[in-house]
Specification:
Blueprint: H1 4-30, E1 34-43, E2 47-53, H2 56-101, H3 111-119, H4 121-149, H5 155-186, H6 194-214, H7 216-234
Antiparallel strand pairs: 1-2
Helix pairs in contact: 1-2, 1-7, 2-4, 2-5, 2-6, 2-7, 4-5, 5-6, 5-7
């Protein structure tokens, strides 16, 4: 029989898993587009234009979801979420390439255009696989290490510190592989100049760092909501036995 505790937490747990996987898949398919935002002042490396992969926002949401998940369900559950989602990247690759290689109907979108758009995500997925497995597991480890050091207090510190450090690792690995090394070595995707790669690293990390700070109140809100449901489920009903 399912306990009241499990039943009460199930909707939040499912929502966090769904957000994590949705954001991850969206990031894989949108990262090949490079975004450019004009800045009021010039910054070192980036200049007056902030460039970043199109996946920056979507991928940042995966860290928000994993931090909420780790806080509510523990280190082991968070590691299972991260590593199962890692395997789903291979499912994404298989589905994308099976569709690309399948014969197209006369009424279909141009197969070459289709391949250029979705096939270009292959270098992104390869880079993301390497960055993901390192940074997400690092995020979970740092989050729980800080939880032990603070005796469960200072959720804001765990959220910001774990996300800031893991996002730096992720950004450097992802951008370097996806926009430089993989295109050069495997010929998949377009290799960018070193200056552009450095600009992408700085631009993406600045956005992710901002999101890590801004999303802290939302982490508190999600955790507080889930725990309030937990307390309500465990409270005595007052009904006669």
């Amino acid at each position: 029989m399912t306990s009241n505790r499990t039943a009460a937490l199930a909707p939040v747990q499912v929502a966090l898993i769904a957000l994590f996987v949705t954001a991850l898949v969206t990031a894989q398919l949108t990262a090949s587009k490079v975004l450019a935002f004009s800045l009021p002042v010039a910054l070192p490396v980036t200049g007056a234009t902030l460039s970043l992969p199109g996946a920056a926002l979507a991928y940042a949401l995966t860290f928000f979801a994993s931090d909420c998940y780790a806080e509510l369900y523990g280190k082991r559950a968070a590691q299972v979420l991260v590593n199962v989602a890692f395997a789903m990247n291979f499912v994404l690759l298989a589905l994308v390439w099976s569709t690309i290689l399948a014969p197209a109907a006369p009424t279909s979108i141009d197969p070459t255009t289709f391949r250029q758009v979705l096939g270009s995500s292959t270098n992104i997925v390869i880079a993301s696989l390497a960055a993901y497995v390192v940074s997400q597991n690092w995020d979970v480890l740092v989050f729980h290490r800080l939880r032990e050091l603070t005796d469960g207090d200072s959720l804001w510190l765990r959220n910001v510190a774990s996300t800031a450090s893991s996002q730096l690792i992720d950004t450097v690995i992802f951008v370097t592989l996806g926009f430089l090394l993989v295109p050069q070595v495997l010929g998949v995707g377009v290799a960018l100049p070193l200056g552009a790669v450095a600009g992408l690293i700085v631009g993406q990390y600045l956005l992710k760092l901002l999101i890590a700070v801004v999303d802290t109140p939302f982490v508190y809100a999600v955790v507080g909501f889930a725990r309030s449901r937990d307390r309500a489920a465990e409270a005595p009903t007052g009904e006669p036995q």
